[in-house]
Specification:
Helices cover about 90% and strands about 0% of the residues. The chain has helices at about 1-30, 35-40, 40-70.
């Protein structure tokens, strides 16, 4: 169970944490969110979709690795 939680944290928690952290720092520094262009521009939206797909694929991959290690 701990290994699965670690995989979940690595696949989704860490990227989400850094997204929030970077947005907070740029908001405090410049008054604009770092992710604004990604959310507003169609190319940025496609990139965000690709990021989500790759995150989910990475999570599935980690699950397979954990299952192989657990036997």
């Amino acid at each position: 169970a701990l290994a699965r939680f670690s995989a979940l944290a690595l696949a989704f928690g860490l990227p989400a944490f850094f997204l929030v952290l970077v947005n907070l720092f740029t908001l405090l520094g410049s008054g604009e969110l770092w992710s604004t262009p990604m959310l507003a521009d169609p190319l940025g939206q496609k990139a965000l979709g690709l990021i989500v797909v790759l995150e989910v694929l990475g999570w599935f991959w980690l699950q397979q690795v954990l299952e192989a290690l657990e036997g």
